[in-house]
Amino acid sequence: MGTVITFKRPDGKDASGYLANAARGNAPGVVVIQEWWGLSDQIKGLCDRFALAGFDALAPDLYKGKVVPYHDTESANKEMNSLDFMDATTQTVRGATQYLSRNGAKVGLTGFCLGGAVTIIGATKIPELAAGVVFYGIPPEQAAKPADVKIPLQAHFANKDDWCTPQVVDAFEKGMKAAGKSIELFRYDAEHAFVNEQRQAVHDREAAELAWGRATEFFRKHLG
Predict the structure, then answer these.
(1) CA Rg, the chain, in Å?
(2) CB 39 within 8 A of CB 115
(3) What distance in Å separates the CA atoms of residue 92 and residue 107, rounded to the nearest whole number?
């Protein structure tokens, strides 16, 4: 449904990503950030789904063409740890945001796992954003403090998550509330990565559909 495009980062360098356009011409935009596996077919599928829901969706390729197979957690961890999160967020993700906002459209940011952490960093660093939806990812506080979040956030977390643990989620929620920031936070009795239908071991269809409905409703509210 979508297509691979090249867009400019603020520093003038080229970046690429997968773009799926909504049927209407003046659609709001959503930037979609990958899991630690890379720009997989599953993430492209989510862009297609956002397009069907009425949003222009662009997933920037943060790994520059590399996609890690689902079983290879060691390689995924290596790729994630070698990613410069600040450069990825303030340059590549911001470039994608600027691309979608070029006709005056409001743009939101969403991401999964690694992308959830990038979404929170983006909420503090990307001025063109109007809203963010986080899925099971939180960056270290030195990367993004709750007090620095500048946009309304919605967040979805799994109770059976050994990476983005319930304790980490509770601390993040407490920090957001203490800073007087707008957050809608949902917890699901599911595993990390429960939205990813390609990973049958962790996918939870009921939780995924509930989260999807909440996310698209939130974006319609804040992006138009």
Answers:
(1) 16
(2) no
(3) 15
Backbone phi and psi for residue 123, each to the nearest 5 degrees, phi listed first: -65, -20
List the CATH number of the domain containing 202. 3.40.50.1820
Q: How far apart are CA 61 and CA 44, in angstroms?
A: 10
Nearest Cα residue to 34 out of 80, 1, 75: 80
Number of structural domains found in the chain: 1
Q: Coil, strand or helix: which one is 102?
A: coil
Tell me which residue range forms the domain holding 135.
Answer: 3-223
Q: What does the pLDDT look like over 59-93, one tens digit per residue? A: 999 999 999 999 999 999 999 999 999 999 999 99
For 130-133, the CB contacts below 8 A with 24+ separation are 130/106, 130/222, 130/223, 131/106, 131/218, 131/219, 131/221, 131/222, 131/223, 132/108, 133/108, 133/109, 133/215, 133/218, 133/219
pTM surpassing 0.90? yes
Contact 124, 149 (CB under 8 A): yes
Q: Which two tokens stand for residue 223?
A: 């992006």
